[in-house]
Amino acid sequence: MTVEDLSRSWLDHLAVERGLSANTLSNYRRDVQRYVDWLSAVGIDSLQDVTEKHVESYVADLRSGRSCGTPLAASSAGRALVVARGLHRFALAEGAIAVDVTAEISPPATGQHLPDTLSIAEVEKLLTAVGEGESAGPLEIRDRALLELLYGTGARISEVIGLTVDDVAEMDGYIRVRGKGNKERIVPVGGAATEALEAYVVRARPVLATGASHALFLNTRGNTLSRQSAWAVIKSAAQRAGISKDISPHTLRHSYATHLLEGGADVRSVQELLGHSSVTTTQIYTHVTADNLRSVWRESHPRA
């Protein structure tokens, strides 16, 4: 049975057996037709061929306006997902499909507040507010490496303080980070961050490494640098740089993504670099290889 046939049967089911109002049915008919049209546009005419990624991409297209001309609000895209899910549940109950691929897909988040973004000039001021060179002490060298890595990779603060020495050994232009769900990804690192990291590993970390910790970033007691201490490093650097914006570790992550996009990087690659997993919120559509990511990053990031 085609998607068109199933959608008509489902609408009939809603009208006859569920007794939905004419207005509600009209809204359902509009949303399910939009879903059917989207599937047709990507070459799918059977719900058996729909994957979870297809549905996530559909919702992401609604949010971006790619499929309907005008971007839909998160609430409207969420309602469209409810309709698509209803169709799949009906198909499952009718035996037309074996698995409901919409079951685990979350609706787009609403009301999310994006942190302030630093301009490239502000990032430069922030980074240079931390001393470097031969006169810099171990903590200054550590703090500079921390800031360069946060902005240079867009990694979450938890990912950066979770790095071990092995994760950056023989980097060859990449580091390995562990994100949410302990999922690993390879992230390209440019010259500025690499230089700062090498200075830290060679000159500063041996001074701080009084214990047996394998963590990359250490505090003065030789233990893993805490999230709170890393946050304090950023706040202190912002104050010295004269930046009045409400800055946090996520500000650097958001600035990283913004500057890449402004530099011409495509959204898919940026979101892969950030390590997001949900297409409904990150709009990941395709797998991107590490080499492609590095190419995009090198061409777009101001400190590559």
From TrEMBL:
One of its GO terms (biological process) is cell division. The keyword Amino-acid biosynthesis does not apply. Its main location: cytoplasm. InterPro entries: CB, DNA_brk_join_enz, Integrase-like_cat_sf, Integrase_catalytic, Integrase_recombinase_N, Integrase_SAM-like_N, Recomb_XerD, Tyrosine_recombinase_XerC/XerD. One of its GO terms (cellular component) is cytoplasm. Keywords: Cell cycle, Cell division, Chromosome partition, Cytoplasm, DNA integration, DNA recombination, DNA-binding. It is found in: Cytoplasm. The keyword Cell cycle applies. Residues 1-92 form the Core-binding (CB) domain. Residues 113-298 form the Tyr recombinase domain. The active site is at R156, K180, H250, R253, H276, Y285 (o-(3'-phospho-dna)-tyrosine intermediate). GO terms for molecular function: DNA binding; tyrosine-based site-specific recombinase activity. Forms a cyclic heterotetrameric complex composed of two molecules of XerC and two molecules of XerD. Site-specific tyrosine recombinase, which acts by catalyzing the cutting and rejoining of the recombining DNA molecules. The XerC-XerD complex is essential to convert dimers of the bacterial chromosome into monomers to permit their segregation at cell division. It also contributes to the segregational stability of plasmids. Belongs to the 'phage' integrase family. XerD subfamily. This is Tyrosine recombinase XerD. It comes from Corynebacterium tapiri.
